[in-house]
Specification:
- Two copies of one chain form a homodimer.
- By secondary structure, chain A is an alpha/beta fold.
- Chain A has seven helices and nine strands, in the order βαββαβαββαβαααββ.
């Protein structure tokens, strides 16, 4: 089992800008990447490829492979899938709530494809048994795209249902989930910047620490 | 195993008002309630109490018990817990994505308490083995409250991780999840009103059907 993590740091996560400055966002996406890599390793997935461009500066001490592509996300991943001959787990880098337990459960599922849906029809994790028989189509309700591609190519599918893996960190209110359910470097970072506003409402708000 | 569903229909779900009129919202919350009751039944949980007030008009054909209380949510549930002598599953009525599989898995977990977190620190489902040893405190980061209460009363806890159960239907964008992952009456209702806007972005938008 290989893992592939697409990674973008430059001006990443602009929707977090009400809460974090450009420099903070670039720090934070690197910490999220480190947490994702750590969870993969703890789950026994050690052959990890990070897909990025040279200007995104993947830290050298991660101990992963680094692959460069200037293509867009779909084209870059599809070129990658054509070259590999073993199962591939594609995880987004903005999933700091992923735990080793999730990875172990997903790779143990005996289906051709495991899809972990994100909010709004996104695909947060894909586990692809036969990379040469599959292609990705992110954006534009990718969850439905990937279900359809599996059907068209006659592959069996498991939909893996996880709140923690559905939570990609895109907007300020997602940072609350890192506080509540996170671990590792990304949780430490969010805890160092923000407090939780418990104001009697059903959902907690994000407060800036003094 | 008993189930308890707190239910409010009158002027419910005001945050859905950009998408649904008052009358539509009142229809929709009733359909969600019916789907939740159906999933419980299919999972073998048939002793179902709906906790409400007389003015909320629980439909008479549901075949559930109906309990009236004018107290606030926490006080009403805590009074209820004092009177029952068997395990109780508390489900919110705005969880139309709940499937029989979820209910079966949750009631089979061998812990004193199962907590299903919602977004923003909410509690969407609670499974309480010993109702007389527990009390609820909804609102105000209830997920943390319930973890703390379990710890203070020396009870074991399982956090059940589900995207579908984390999705309470509060805001227009939550209706997309009903389209994508729903079933039953609530999905049919949403599909009859809205279409999905697939616009090349990572998350699909909600479009009004002509």
């Amino acid at each position: 089992m290989k893992a592939l993590i697409p990674y973008k740091r430059q001006n990443a996560k602009s929707r977090l800008s009400p809460a974090l400055s450009l420099r903070e966002r670039e720090q934070f996406v690197e910490l999220m990447l480190r947490d994702v890599v750590e969870s993969l390793r703890e789950a026994g997935v050690t052959d990890i490829d990070i897909l990025t461009t040279p200007s995104n500066g993947v830290p050298g001490d991660l101990g992963t492979n680094i692959l460069f592509s200037e293509h867009d996300l779909n084209e870059a991943i599809n070129q990658y899938l054509e070259t590999v001959n073993e199962p591939v787990l594609i995880l987004m880098a903005d999933l700091p709530l992923v735990a080793p337990r999730h990875v172990k459960e997903i790779v143990a599922i005996d289906k051709d494809l495991v899809i972990v849906p994100g909010k709004g029809g996104g695909t947060n994790v894909l586990c692809i048994r036969n990379p040469q028989r599959f292609y990705v189509r992110y954006y534009d309700s990718s969850f439905l795209n990937h279900c359809r591609i599996a059907e068209e190519t006659g592959q069996s599918v498991h939909i893996y249902d996880s709140f923690l893996l559905s939570t990609d960190i895109d907007e300020p209110h997602d940072l609350i989930e890192v506080m509540l359910h996170g671990h590792g470097l990304s949780k430490a970072y969010v805890d160092s910047k923000f407090g939780m506003e418990r104001n009697g409402k059903s959902r907690a708000g994000l407060g800036l620490l003094q």
